[in-house]
């Protein structure tokens, strides 16, 4: 009895300490604080909690030692929490944590100590952030990690030894980034890796040197990369069994391309541009080759490959595209005499000779700086330098010059650094970037000019850096977008201009930025966006305009942005939202942020065209007097309606019925009448007096009913057209 009373007492204490917006299950030591309005990690979470789910909050920054009060955590979920920065030591004290999910946030950089203290962590999910660069040592304290998920970020470059410390990692997921440069030692510190996902990137050649370090990897996915040719002995992976090169741009494969991967069993070459293959040498264990979707020319020149298939007992999947007499015939149904040479098959163009790596330069490291030959890094951070130092080693790839006082960057400021990939010039009091300042930086991908005093840029400011893909100009003094400067940047992917003083987006401001995917303009003073201002950016995927002075949705400027998946308009003083305001991007939009705008009225037709593709919709902290019908938003994962003062009368019943069918935490509460104030819309009893309440109640008990059925039943019950929306009345 004593132990029972103690357990009850402890449970009561824990319950008393459960934070207000959370649900605490003390028996299982689980705490859920889903889709709430939390802006900081609660400090009253029960100490013995093992699983903490904080999805859908608004933390922005995870500060140092944020979880010291919960040292027994084993699982932590921070998905969709708008996190942009992990401070050094953010997770210190969580030595028992085995699972950490940070997916779908806005993290840009992983610092050296961001993940310190997670010695037991086994799974780290960072999918769907904006990570552009990983600093050396970022994973150095994760000695137990087995799965690292970095899918759908903004990585272009992987430096040498970037994964150092991950001694037991078994699966590395790098799909859907923009990788096109891999250091030769990028994977050198992964002795236990079994599975590597590099699909959906921008690799133009098979990164054989980097992959050769993976002695034990058995599964490699390189599909959906623009690789055109696989050269002789291009892949030396002793344990590789499954290789995916599907949906690439392959035109030819050398006979001994895979000779140094003798364990290969499955080779996927679907949907390429191959007219044929030679007999493949050194792959005695090969079981299947998939060639579906290639323009196979079944002439006499394909006979050697066909005979090899039979002799080696390899199953081939694929069909002839030519000649016409054999079109559609499967490879395994062909006989040698049928493959005639009535037409010559043009031999493939020989591959361009591989460029031999240059020997490292012999120059000394500038005085007062630190150069790391192992990582090809140079650093002069915070040395009170007045001029940009020279004489860095010629093979330097990352140069950190932050927190100095350069004031200007002169022409030809970085001589001899043709291999430089990442240049950090944050907080250097720079007010002038002279034309030709970056001349000679042929490999530069990342340029960070954050927190300087730049107010204008010359058209030739970026001359000589044609590979530049990530440009950070936030926290400067621009009053308008520096027009004409992007003409020299055909590979620009990401442009950061947030927290300047830009007043408008004019036509021509973004001329030349035809490959731009992410545009960040938050925290400016933008009042107007010209209809053609975004016209050059037809590949744009993310447009962030939060915290500006827009008075209406810039609908006219959105036409032509057929790839846009994310639009942020939060914290703009948009009071009214008219018909079809998102129609130009309705076919692609997935994430829409309309929170904290003081929104008073939304047209019932405002969301025309939007539907199942919408995954997250943020409408919290507004004052709208109606909610459009969203019953066809069947793909919703997040819907936030917190701090909206709903008037819970019978006109709100359709909304109440709809949200009751969603398996989501929505946060909708009643603002009136007085007897319902503060109650969740789902729980308010005021609807029980409404006509049709009894019929609706039965339908609410089955959360698996389709939205279409729900919408149909609403029409029948109310006799009203669904385009009236979910409205409220204060009358």
UniProtKB/TrEMBL annotation:
User: Which residues does the UniProt record annotate as the domain LRRNT?
Assistant: 17-51, 364-398
Q: Where is the composition biased (Pro residues)?
A: 345-356
A Gene Ontology cellular component where this protein is annotated is: plasma membrane
Give the top-rank taxon of the lineage listed in the UniProt record for this protein: Eukaryota
Alphabetized, the UniProt keywords read: Disulfide bond, Extracellular matrix, Glycoprotein, Leucine-rich repeat, Repeat, Secreted, Signal
Q: Where in the cell is it found?
A: Secreted, Extracellular space, Extracellular matrix
Question: What are the boundaries of the region Disordered?
Answer: 340-360, 692-731
**Family annotation (Pfam families):** LRR_8 (PF13855)
Q: Which residues, if any, are the signal sequence?
A: 1-15
* LRRCT domain ranges (all copies): 294-342, 645-691
Q: Where is the composition biased (Basic and acidic residues)?
A: 720-731
Keyword set includes Lyase? no
Record's function text? Potential negative modulator of chondrocyte differentiation. Inhibits collagen fibrillogenesis in vitro. May influence chondrocyte's differentiation by acting on its cellular collagenous microenvironment.
Tell me, how does this one assemble?
Answer: Associates with collagen and binds to collagen fibrils.
Q: Into which family does the record put it?
A: Belongs to the small leucine-rich proteoglycan (SLRP) family. SLRP class IV subfamily.
Q: What is this protein called?
A: Chondroadherin-like protein
What is the protein's species of origin? Cinclus mexicanus
The taxonomic lineage of its organism, from the top, reads: Eukaryota, Metazoa, Chordata, Craniata, Vertebrata
| Gene, per the UniProt record | Chadl
């Amino acid at each position: 009895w004593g132990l029972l009373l103690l357990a009850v007492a402890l449970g009561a204490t824990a319950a008393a300490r459960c934070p207000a917006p959370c649900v605490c299950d003390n028996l299982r030591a689980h705490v859920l604080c889903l889709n709430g309005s939390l802006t900081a990690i609660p400090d009253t979470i029960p100490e013995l909690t093992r699983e903490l789910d904080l999805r859908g909050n608004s933390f922005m920054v995870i500060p140092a030692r944020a979880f010291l009060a919960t040292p027994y955590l084993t699982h932590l979920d921070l998905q969709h929490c708008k996190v942009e920065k992990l401070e050094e030591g953010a997770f210190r004290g969580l030595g028992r944590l085995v699972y950490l999910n940070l997916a779908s946030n806005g993290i840009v950089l992983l610092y050296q100590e961001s993940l310190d203290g997670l010695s037991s962590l086994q799974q780290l999910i960072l999918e769907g952030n904006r990570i552009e660069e990983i600093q050396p040592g970022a994973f150095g304290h994760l000695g137990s990690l087995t799965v690292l998920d970095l899918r759908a970020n903004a990585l272009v470059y992987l430096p040498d030894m970037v994964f150092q410390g991950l001694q037991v990692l078994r699966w590395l997921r790098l799909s859907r980034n923009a990788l096109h440069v891999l250091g030769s030692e990028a994977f050198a510190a992964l002795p236990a890796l079994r599975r590597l996902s590099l699909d959906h990137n921008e690799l133009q050649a098979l990164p054989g040197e980097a992959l050769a370090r993976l002695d034990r990897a058995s599964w490699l996915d390189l599909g959906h990369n623009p690789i055109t040719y696989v050269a002789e002995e291009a892949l030396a992976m002793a344990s590789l069994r499954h290789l995916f090169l599907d949906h690439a741009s392959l035109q030819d494969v050398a006979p001994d391309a895979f000779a140094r991967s003798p364990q290969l069993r499955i080779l996927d070459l679907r949907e390429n541009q191959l007219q044929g293959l030679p007999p493949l040498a050194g792959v005695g264990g090969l079981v299947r080759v998939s060639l579906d979707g290639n323009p196979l020319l079944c002439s006499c020149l394909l006979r050697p490959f066909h005979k090899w298939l039979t002799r080696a007992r390899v199953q081939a999947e694929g069909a002839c595209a030519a000649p016409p007499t054999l079109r559609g015939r499967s490879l395994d149904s062909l006989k040698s005499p049928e493959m005639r040479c009535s037409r010559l098959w043009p031999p493939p163009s020989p591959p361009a000779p591989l460029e031999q790596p240059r020997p490292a330069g012999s120059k000394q490291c500038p005085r007062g700086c630190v150069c790391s030959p192992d990582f090809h890094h140079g650093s002069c951070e915070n040395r009170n330098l007045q001029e940009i130092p020279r004489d860095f080693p010629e093979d330097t790839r990352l140069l950190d010059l932050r927190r100095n006082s350069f004031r200007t960057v002169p022409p030809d400021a970085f001589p001899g650094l043709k291999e430089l990939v990442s240049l950090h010039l944050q907080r250097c009091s720079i007010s002038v970037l002279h034309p030709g300042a970056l001349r000679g930086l042929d490999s530069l991908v990342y340029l960070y000019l954050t927190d300087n005093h730049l107010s204008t840029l010359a058209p030739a400011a970026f001359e000589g850096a044609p590979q530049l893909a990530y440009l950070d100009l936030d926290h400067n003094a621009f009053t308008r977008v520096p027009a004409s400067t992007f003409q020299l940047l055909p590979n620009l992917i990401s442009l950061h201009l947030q927290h300047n003083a830009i007043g408008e987006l004019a036509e021509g401001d973004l001329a030349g930025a035809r490959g731009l995917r992410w545009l960040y303009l938050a925290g400016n003073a933008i009042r107007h966006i010209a209809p053609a201002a975004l016209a050059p950016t037809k590949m744009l995927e993310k447009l962030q305009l939060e915290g500006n002075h827009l008075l209406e949705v810039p609908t006219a400027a959105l036409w032509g942005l057929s790839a846009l998946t994310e639009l942020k308009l939060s914290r703009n003083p948009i009071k009214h939202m008219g018909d079809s305001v998102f129609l130009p991007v309705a076919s692609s939009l997935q994430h829409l942020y309309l929170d904290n705008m003081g929104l008073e009225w939304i047209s019932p037709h405002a969301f025309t065209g939007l539907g199942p593709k919408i995954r997250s919709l943020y409408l919290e902290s507004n004052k709208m007097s109606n909610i459009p019908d969203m019953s066809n938003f069947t793909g919703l994962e997040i819907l936030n309606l917190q701090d909206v003062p709903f008037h819970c009368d019978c006109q709100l019943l359709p909304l109440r019925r709809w949200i009751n069918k969603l398996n989501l935490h929505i946060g909708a509460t009643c603002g009136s009448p007085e007897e319902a104030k503060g109650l969740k819309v789902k729980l308010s009893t005021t609807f029980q007096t409404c006509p049709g309440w009894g019929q609706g109640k039965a339908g609410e008990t089955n959360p698996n009913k389709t939205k279409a059925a729900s919408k149909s039943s609403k029409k029948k019950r109310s006799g009203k057209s669904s385009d009236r929306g979910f409205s409220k009345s204060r009358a």
